[in-house]
Amino acid sequence: MRYIFVLLLTLISIQASTVYPKTLSLAGEWQYHINHEPKAEGYQYKFLEDDPKMTLPNNWYKQGVNHAGIIWFKKELDSKQLSKNARHFLHFKGVDYLCDIWVNDKLVGSHKGYFQTFDFDITDYLNDGKNSIVVKVDSPLENYPQNYSLNKTLLRGIFAHHDTRPGGAWSAKGQDRNSGGIWNDVLVKSYKNHKFSAVKLTPSLRKDAVDLAIKFDLESLESSLFNFSKTVKVSVEPSNFEGKSFVKEFKVKAAKNQQLTFALEEAKLWTTHDRGFPHLYNISFEIADTKHTLQTGFKTLEHNEGEAHFLNGENIYLKGTNYISSQYMSEMDEEALRKDLELMKEAHINTIRVHAHVEPKRFYKLCDEMGFLVWQDYNLQWGYSESKAFEDEAVKQALEMVDLLYNHPSIYIWTMHNEPPWDSSWMKWKYPNYNPEQNKRLDQKLYDVVRAYDSYHLIKKVSSNIEHPWFGWYSKTYQAFTQPSKAQVITEYGAQAIPNFESLKKFVPNKYLKPTYKKAKEHWEYHNFQFKNSKDYGVKFKGSVKQFIKDSQTYQADLIKFATEMLRIQKYDTTTAVFQFMFKEGWPSMNWGIVDYYLEPKLGYEALKEAYAPIIVVAKQTKDNKIKFYVVNDELTAIEDATFHLTLDTHSKVENYSYSVSVNRDSLLKLGTVLRLQNDVKIQLELKDKDGNSLAKNSYNFSPFQVEKKKDK
């Protein structure tokens, strides 16, 4: 009898220590069926035993299904896998684009949008034993040519229309290879008596402390007529370092929009990898047998017009890139994303612009952990419908984006629209029915609503064309970067380059490797290559594919080096942030990426890495053939008693000069020395510290410009 009693106490102890929610993954094989013909409204497909199977989560194209439209999915669930006496929620982390969900032939809910997480309480739909979950996923095309591509109606950003996706941006093929599917995890989350949701953590800084404003919803799942006050314990514990923890208890009732404040004395701040350590904390909310935990960090980032960005009160110059991890996000697991971010870190990038789409949550978690700031674009790329219904849906999904990513310390800004029609006069050459006022009301509405909803992050209405100086690819030559920047924040510049030969062969058949005839050129263009722009700047096929690749990559590298240096020597004057376009190719293609789809760096990667180094020395040739010299120091320590070495090689003679210099922390130094260029010259620069160690090197080949003589009046 004594042993039975001890066993009973042990079971009670185990049961009492059970923490909810409990999670069951539904990853694995699902049956699927493709809808090839239109069906009546309300139709539900009845699965057959021999219907094929697909491994989920996945974009269906990555599983060999090239389809736009509806695909049905089915999964069997045994109730024995679920906790007893709990409420069960079917939880989706990402479905592209529309979906309806049935449990045991009963419709439990619908959803629109590819990036959001969402769930439905399916408890009352479940049977004892086997249960059937059916998901209808619809990933449609925009109507062509009525809506695609100036009056789009789907909020899919670059996954629907972009010049780096399959087929490019300006043809009917630009919607090929659809990204639809249940691309992220599907889970059943079981809750006992309580459910936390809508958690938002907003830090404000004061000397040696963080004041944390906390908002959340607490839902009671108990069958009770009374809503008594209960104790919620909030714990703040270091996640990626050893340090001080904080615990506080609050009395709350189950309700929406709970608001608490928590003073955290001596809390550590999050910062970028080049400025220090990205301290992170695990924030836990506990009530009875329920615990909800999330990871966050504490920072502030402000931007004063005419000045710099201020991270935790200190200037920071943003060295960024544009990023699309993949056209098919299911293939970007944590390991794949980490590889991309490691390459960025090695290239001294501290900020990432997520270009006109939303990445998986795991991307932002890695940015938090690795110390990257994130400029987050919304899903608007070029032109969209002017209807009220579209505007309402755009506002709804914009707020859902804010809710999804709010607590990531890496996020610092929301931008509502990339190159909208009202800011893109170049569209008059693309569209006969171009309206210079299109989407102006939409963007103002989005800006106003998001700004009112989120006062913590920076908000930007558009990424404007004035911030996209495409010198050397769409206009002028890249020497135009010597002129003062027209925008403080430059969010796009660059040029295309062909991937390395081994990468190119993986997606270009042998018969198309030489783009000398129509079908071969069409294949290259389908994979995003722009022959005309390349040719306009002197890069064209001359008989050898390898030489074509070399010329193409060399041009991209030269442009990136030159443009980045010219923008950086305007530091904290006419520029405060620069974003090269694009870091990586998100599918097997040949576009603006400095790293190809197979993670092989092009020459442009090394060029950006050198131009983004913390300390650089730069020579600039002016229109009147003067050579000016600069030192850029991004380090948080001053450079004292250094020596600036200058070597001039005119082929007939070599001259060496040395100058003593000191450079303040995080600053730009313009040297007083100016040379007059009269002949071709090779210039070598080197900065050495007081102990003779090299801090930075650079070299240039300059030729005099032809200067027009002023006419004698």
TrEMBL record:
InterPro entries from the UniProt entry: Beta-gal/glucu_dom_sf, Beta-mannosidase-like_N2, Galactose-bd-like_sf, GH, GH2_Domain-Containing, Glyco_hydro_2_cat, Ig-like_fold, Ig-like_GH2
Transmembrane segments: none
Pfam families: Glyco_hydro_2 (PF00703), Glyco_hydro_2_C (PF02836), Glyco_hydro_2_N2 (PF22666)
Gene Ontology terms, MF aspect: hydrolase activity, hydrolyzing O-glycosyl compounds
Signal peptide bounds: 1-18
Domain Beta-mannosidase-like galactose-binding: 72-145
Residue span, Glycoside hydrolase family 2 catalytic domain: 309-558
Cross-referenced Gene3D superfamilies: Galactose-binding domain-like, Glycosidases, Immunoglobulins
Record-level GO BP terms: carbohydrate metabolic process
Keyword set includes DNA repair: no
Annotated Glycoside hydrolase family 2 immunoglobulin-like beta-sandwich domain residues: 198-294
Annotated keywords: Glycosidase, Hydrolase, Signal
Family statement: Belongs to the glycosyl hydrolase 2 family.
Name of protein: Beta-mannosidase
Annotated organism of origin: uncultured Sulfurovum sp
